[in-house]
Write a structure and sequence with these properties.
single chain; alpha+beta; Hsp33 domain; CBS domain Like; 2 domains; six-stranded antiparallel beta sheet; six-stranded mixed beta sheet; 10 helices; 14 strands; 36% helix; 29% strand; elongated
């Protein structure tokens, strides 16, 4: 039976290679339930959601990790988020017909990939690279190559029921032992190169059907039955949106009292729908007025007009 809504970490013994395997089921279907995504959008959104889950187990952070793909084609935006609490959410925006079976470049056109790490207290980190490659996997491989100098390979798959992915990453090489000769150190580097090449070639034989249909143990046996792989205990993942009434109220406060009262005057109330989960928040005239009860009023300017 296939694993469900979980991520597992791998370590290839006696090498400088680690990996992650992710399977998304109910969490992926919860994302699909929020909007009527056409088939050409679903596959890229599912792959992006699997990718951000894989990255969340690779990059150390305390907060949220956001992956965005922005383009000028019919598929305008992919936004997926994973948190350090192992929750996921995602959304896509498109205009017109998104071709089924087309690669990411054909769907998005010229664009960029943005990876953002938001920390609770510190400043967010953001990396931006041009959108290159046939899919989300290739775009992220380019990101790690150009921004992190950390060789990384990904294989992603998604259908209407499940999204899955495999990530491999080569860790920085070991430092030279003072007792090692230059030749010995060179041989060690050559061995690491050979390990990375071999493990990557084996992973490249995986099919989308195997990623989606095989559980972790069966997939590892299929790919690496002759390798010494340590499999760590898997961690559960779940769909959860970060929206709340208090966050909606904070957002409305940033608009300002005049803007909010104008909305109430025009519509009789303020209604905000979260794009990620479709939950609707309704504030009537009294609720909207309460937002600014404790806000200090700015004194009128004494400057002449």
């Amino acid at each position: 039976m296939a694993d469900t809504d979980s991520i597992a970490r791998l370590l290839f013994e006696h090498t400088a290679i680690r990996g992650n395997l992710v399977h998304l089921d109910a969490s992926w279907r919860a994302v699909l339930d929020t909007h009527p995504y056409p088939p050409g959008v679903r596959v890229h959104l599912g792959q992006a959601l699997a990718a951000v889950a894989l990255l969340s187990a690779t990059i150390k952070f305390d907060g949220s990790l956001i992956l965005q793909v922005q383009g000028c084609g019919p598929l305008r935006t992919l936004v997926v988020q994973a948190t350090s609490a192992r929750t996921l959410r995602g959304i896509a925006r498109w205009e017109g017909e998104v071709p089924v079976g087309a690669d990411l470049a054909a769907c998005c056109g010229t664009g960029r990939l943005v990876l953002t790490i938001e920390r609770g207290a510190g400043e967010p980190y953001q990396g931006i690279v041009p959108l290159t490659g046939a899919g989300v996997a290739e775009a992220l491989e380019h990101y790690f190559e150009s921004s992190e100098q950390l060789p990384t390979r990904l294989w992603l798959a998604a259908d209407d029921q499940r999204a899955a992915g495999l990530l491999l990453q080569r860790l920085p090489g070991t430092h030279r032992d003072p007792d090692q000769s230059k030749d010995q150190h060179a041989d060690q580097r050559d061995d690491q190169e050979e390990d990375w090449r071999r493990v990557g070639l084996l992973a490249a034989t995986v099919t989308p059907g195997e990623l989606l249909g095989l559980n972790t143990l069966d997939l590892l046996h299929r790919l690496y039955h002759e390798e010494d792989v340590r499999l760590f205990e898997s961690e559960p993942l779940a769909f959860r949106c970060g929206c709340s009434r208090s966050r909606i109220e904070d957002m409305l406060r940033t608009l300002g009292e005049h803007e909010v009262q104008s909305m109430v005057a025009e519509q009789g109330a303020v209604t905000v729908t979260c794009e990620f989960c479709n939950r609707t928040y309704h504030l009537d005239a009294v609720d909207a007025g309460q937002l600014f009860v404790h806000s200090p009023r700015q004194p009128p300017s004494a400057a002449p007009h």
